Amino acid sequence: MRTTTGLAALGVGAVAGLGVGALLAARQISGPQRPALDYGFTPFEVGVDSEDVTFTAADGIRLAGWWLDRPGSEQVVIVCHGHRGNKADMLGIGPGLWRAGFTVLMFDFRGNGASADGPQSLAHYEQRDLEAAIDLVAERRPDAEIDVVGFSMGAAVSILVAARDERVARVIADSSFADVRGVVAAAARGLRLPPMPLVDLVDRATHLRYGYRFHEVEPVEVVAAIAPRPLLLVHGTDDSVIPVEHAHRLAEAAGEGCELRIVEGVEHCGAYFEDRPGYIARAAEFLRRR
Q1: What is the pLDDT of residues 201-256, one digit of tens each?
Q2: In the predicted model, what is the mean pLDDT of the chain?
Q3: Co-location of 78 and 196 in the same domain
Q4: How far apart are CA 105 and CA 98, in angstroms?
Q5: Residue 264: how many CB atoms within 10 A of its CB?
Q6: Residues 6 or more apart from 37 whose CB is under 8 A from it?
Q7: Which domain holds residue 142?
């Protein structure tokens, strides 16, 4: 997730005033951004056949994905990328799970990759995108189990949606935040800025410019609704974007069915890169477990 880079705008606020800094930070979190060049890798680069799919979120935003079919599989895994990322970022875990025997759907959240522009946020509007992806899977494979694997913002979206959509059978959430306020506060402290009143100012600026409040995006408040369905939380001890205490708070709130895997010495979303084959094997074992 690239939230830390975006929140460097808070440094401007130290000079120009907290109010201006809050507006800039809100824009970096929720404003539209696309790379200057939209080149990207595809499943071709990793030797996996895929089908380009498009589907539409409830508010009309066209979304793009890759369908990695595994005929005969009884599970479809939806993979969710992080903030300011795209589905190409998931070309490790997605094809890895496909090779492990699962059908996989990888897709771009709104405003990223090949998906159309639309109102963006930090895991608020993006919930509509995952809901649409679940609808697509349910339509194409009505008899299959639907599982979700998410990273960073995608992990938070996975928790928020699974908490209210019982079609999701199990969730792997890697480096999720427990609440947005905590993410912004951690970024402010990292930039040697006072979290208060800055967090409140960014919250208000986000509501003014982008139409949602931080209290509407609190996975820790709803994660218990996933139980008793299996939930695996993964987090690195050295995460400088979303401190590891977020994972502990989520696990404490989750209750039955939740497993917490803390990986020593790794940064944000670093568990996969610490041991790629081991990560895929453990994820596949968790998804298969009955």
Answers
A1: 999 999 999 999 999 999 999 999 999 999 999 999 999 999 999 999 999 999 89
A2: 92
A3: no
A4: 10
A5: 9
A6: none
A7: 45-178+218-288
